[in-house]
Amino acid sequence: MIKKLMLAVATLCATMGFAFAQVDVNKADSAALDGVKGVGPAMSKAILTEREKGGEFKDWADFQKRVKGVGDKKAMKLSAAGLQVNGKPMEGAAAKPAKTSAKPVGKPAAEPAKM
Predict the structure, then answer these.
(1) DSSP count for the chain of H helices, then E strands
(2) What's the predicted TM-score (pTM) here?
(3) Residues 20-74: pLDDT tens digits?
(4) pLDDT higher than 80, residue 104
(5) Where are the alpha helices (H) located in the chain, listed in sequence order?
(6) Cα–Cα distance between 91 and 24 in angstroms, integer?
(7) Domains defined along the chain, listed by start
(8) 23 pairs with which residues across the strands?
(9) Which of 55, 91, 100, 115 is the most exposed place for a label (fewest CB within 10 A)?
(10) Contact between residue 23 and residue 32 where contact means Cβ atoms under 8 Å apart
């Protein structure tokens, strides 16, 4: 029973690692690229083909120029999803902000009177 529990915990930890992993286009294989939201089999194939043909991507501009269908908007989304070029996210791409509560926080309590 304990072995099954440990296996379940290890599996959970491994999948969480994949969810937050950063993937560099110059080092990733097809499976790693497919794991990035917004990159499908066709795009991962195009990335790998272009990387084999022209060498590693120098920066995001080089990546966008060489991979068909990746414009500014798509590059921003891919970067926010964890794709990197030479270990760097795209400039201006930010991780999704945390949701904040729209409920008002209420008035602070009045300070007690000093005597």
Answers:
(1) 5, 2
(2) 0.63
(3) 579 999 999 999 999 999 999 999 999 999 999 999 999 999 999 999 999 999 9
(4) no
(5) 2-19, 30-34, 41-54, 60-66, 72-80
(6) 15
(7) 22-84 (1.10.150.280)
(8) 83
(9) 115
(10) yes
